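Retro notes, item 3 of 5
We never archived the inputs for the zinc ion complex last cycle. Fixing that now. Sequence and ligand:
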Amino acid sequence: MRKEVIEVYKRYGIDPKKAIETLKSVPLSIQCWQLDDIDGFLKKESLSGGIASTGNYPFKARGFDELVKDYKFALDLIPGKKKINLHAIYESDEPVDRSEISYKNFAKWIDFAKNNGYGIDFNPTVFSSEMLVDGLSLSSPKKEVRDYWVKHCINSIKISEKFGEVLNEKSLCNIWIPDGEKESPADRLSLRKNLKDSLDRIFEYKFDKKYCDVSLESKVFGIGVESFTVGSSEFYQNYCAHSEAINLVDMGHYHPTENVADKISSILLFNDKMAFHISRPVRWDSDHVVKLNDELQEVCDELVKCDALNRAYIGLDYFDGSINRVASLVIGARNLVKALLRSLLTPWETLKEYQNEGKHTEVLLLQEELKTLPWEEVYEEYLKECNVESEYTWFNKVKEYEKEVMSKRG
Ligand code: RNT
Ligand code: ZN
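Structure as it came back at the time:
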């Protein structure tokens, strides 16, 4: 990094080297499901349950070996501390029914994580299943359906606990369910009561908080369930306030004009921790590849100015089958890294002082001025220190990989 760049930031009281060091310590959880359009390895069921992956880009990973290869290739192009994020349908060893899973079915993943120094986050897969009856799982009026998914969720938490223990890095177990109704339901209350009771049963299992946390992810609507979602934002906010659960905010799961960044300070005031799915909504889809846009920047800004990087689980969540899937993962992850870096290069104390003194012109002016500072050079320095390919060359590596490895998949 040129010393002129350091001088520029010094004028604002910012030390780019410190920003780089902070960024190195923030773990980012990278979703395995981008690499195969959430097919998973069980192949019994195709993707269903309120979400869809679109696009026919060729060379999709088929099975554990190909997926791990692509994953490693992508992760090596993403700077900083990384966690892998698995779904229950990605069992690496002797697959069993979802209600019976244990960490033993993920043994190869544990080896992969250990060998590369990654932590692992985990998700019960409460979709793509015939046990989703009338589109309902934990909120189903049928007791046997609820029992099945309660068992799957408890087993998933136990898997997370084990990951946390053996990898020495706390694991997040995130529960998202697609339960909802296409039209306005006759009875909202009993479905929500069923969900509450199922969650109470799940949280009767006392997991060791040294090794894992459990989050609940809300949504506004899904495909085929346009009128009503059982696990709404209000439902989980209240459930989290009365339980061990952590609120997970997916950036694609709110009304289009809602500002997700605005929610962060309110959640942090009443909860020790919160969790994120960094995503990008476009019309009906909540899972487009993450761009470096104002929405992402503002979420990262909030985390930094609330001094909450160590109180947040930050994970990516999107899936695009229309472009090279490895590149898709790298583009989104790098955009998240850039946004976090820009937040760390911002003189929040000065801006806060201006606000407190009523100097609103100065707040606006400084915010705009910061946009054209040479943050890109700091980013390149960060890549260099992390031993990761430059912004201007990484895609060549992916093209080569596509030619040499992916395209041979037929
Ligand atoms: C769906 C949720 C959920 C999933 C993943 C695959 O709308 O965002 O997080 O995307 O679990
Ligand atoms: Zn999500």
